[in-house]
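Internal tracking record. Fields below are filled automatically when a chain is submitted to the structure queue. Please do not edit lines marked as system-generated. If the sequence contains nonstandard residues, flag them in the REMARKS field before resubmitting.
Queue: standard
Priority: normal
Entity type: single polypeptide chain
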Amino acid sequence: MDIVTGLMIWAAEATTLAVLLWSRWFYEREDFYLSWGSGFALHGMGVALLALRGSIPDFVSIQIANTTVFVAVGLWIAGLLQFDRKPVQGFVAIPALIWIAGMFLDPVRESFANRVVLYNCAAMAGYAIMIGILVRDNGPSRVTRRFMAGFISVQFIANGASAILATVNQPTSFATAPNAALLFFPAAFCFVAGIMSGAKLLTERSEEKLKALAVTDPLTGVLNRRGLIDEFHGLRELEKAEKPLIALLHFDLDSFKQINDRCGHQAGDAVLIAFSQVGQTSLRGRGFFGRMGGEEFASILRVADMVEAASIAEAIRLTLKRQIIVTGEHRIKVTVSAGIALAVAQDANLDLLLSAADKALYSAKESGRDRTAIDTGVEASIVPAVDRQGEDEAPADLRANRQVAALKRLATLGKR
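SYSTEM-GENERATED OUTPUT FOLLOWS
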């Protein structure tokens, strides 16, 4: 098979891939599909123009064709960044800019050998960027990414060897270039291998999305009950001597049914979403927050003592209380009650923690709602609230011991 036929086959394959990727983008609307599809379309166009050398003007088959190829490389790089959910940056244009800049130099533009060297240098720059993007990620697909980077590295080496041979032999055309096969066949192999690796990356990404959907609440985006259970087992095994306890914080939005009845279910959904944002933000990576179902939420985290757990629950309660949720024509203020249960991490039993936290939550509701209660093993005790200072405390409140005094100081600091 001569090199022109090979280039035309290559162009047809690239165009077919472009159509497939565009079709995927049409249904999923992921930007990287559009970038990769456009990259393959331009790549196919550029390769086809290269194959038509001699049948079309040299300016088109050389300058335009290769510029198109390197714009395609830039789109592939952009697609990789979008795949990793990173912003597209200006360095995606480096391969095309190298080629365009070289074409302004007469010794390069007028010499086939020098153009070959320039082409390979521009291609190596693009491949080096892709390799860097692929290997810097240590996520679940790191093995596949490294395989893909390995195939691209083979192409990088082949381009380097081709540039060296062109410098040494000074060919005047593809027919007289002894390294034409060196450029084409490794490129064809890596092209196919790269596509297979990319397909595996997409499959692994789809599997990750399905796993995430299985443990995520579709309305609020926080963990669901199953997700919280999975995270509980991870927290229990975590070696963290300075935080020996697991705390389970059980939240229930007060009078939520009245919000739905008065303002509608859309407003109720807005309240659920707003509280989920409050819960996630208040934890700041210290634990996990999720929706148990309906208007019930929970958080699990490692803590040093009862005071730390109560401080976090109170921070969430107070933050929600001060917030006005605007949805449509409604301005909604809502409160939440919380129940807390704790256990030593190594001995923690999720069912027992849930039961204890639920009893504490019931005590908070019975004591007037908009409160936090802690299960102390014997009975649930109401946490003194900084927004109720001066009011008569409920009979079940904690005694004013050192822990309560520390809790009040922490809560006061959080209020400032």
